[in-house]
Design a protein that fits this description.
Shape: globular
Order of helices and strands: HEHEHEHEHEHEH
Structural class: alpha/beta
Strand order of the largest sheet: 3-2-1-4-5-6
Oligomer: single chain
Number of helices: 7
Radius of gyration: 15 Å
Helix content: 25-40%
Distance between the termini: 21 Å
Number of strands: 6
Largest sheet: 6 strands, parallel
Length: about 170
């Protein structure tokens, strides 16, 4: 069972100091190299209307820590539009984050060839997705049900174009 949000989207955005009119993208789950957070931050430099909420715990050893991405956000001049909730998230908080977001990022690297539990959360909370990955059940599901926009993996320019496309032509999930 997935809980309902315990606060409104507007209230969560107020608490996180995110403007009501901002486009909020959510990166959810363990912070891992193959989620391409560095590409999202690079894309944000070209997309000033975007804000990013990263919610999830640090990953295992051998993965870049959240501090690496925070430093990159500073260097790119987008840190003021990033919110970091780095820890395990309780179910009601998960619901709040998904409810407050405009879309969910599933921007995996080309080596990712699996499914994602985040897809199920995003579908439940009726959020479109901006996705990339190698050939996988994740992409097959997104395409089959028109759940979002697919962009080629590991390409910051393609990500910017995909987000522009999503902003102009949001999909209507089936």
């Amino acid at each position: 069972r997935y809980p309902a949000a315990s606060i409104s989207a507007a209230e969560l955005r107020r608490r996180l100091a995110i403007p009501p009119q901002a486009t909020l993208l959510l990166s959810f789950g363990h912070i891992r190299n193959n989620k391409n957070l560095q590409l999202i931050l690079q894309a944000m430099a070209d997309l000033p209307e975007l804000w990013l909420l990263v919610a999830g715990p640090e990953a295992t050893a051998g993965q870049r820590p959240s501090a690496h991405y925070r430093q990159q956000a500073e260097q790119l001049g987008v840190a003021h539009r990033c919110r970091w909730q780095i820890s395990y998230q309780a179910p009601d908080q998960v619901a709040n984050y998904f409810t407050a977001s405009d879309a969910v990022l599933l921007t995996y690297s080309g080596s990712f060839r699996s499914a994602s539990g985040v897809l199920h959360l995003a579908a439940h909370y009726r959020k479109t997705m901006i996705a990339s990955a190698g050939a996988s059940a994740l992409l097959d599901t997104i395409r089959a049900f028109n759940l979002g926009v697919f962009v080629p993996p590991d390409d910051a320019r393609a990500l910017v174009h995909g987000i522009h496309h999503w902003l102009r032509h949001p999909p209507e999930p089936d």
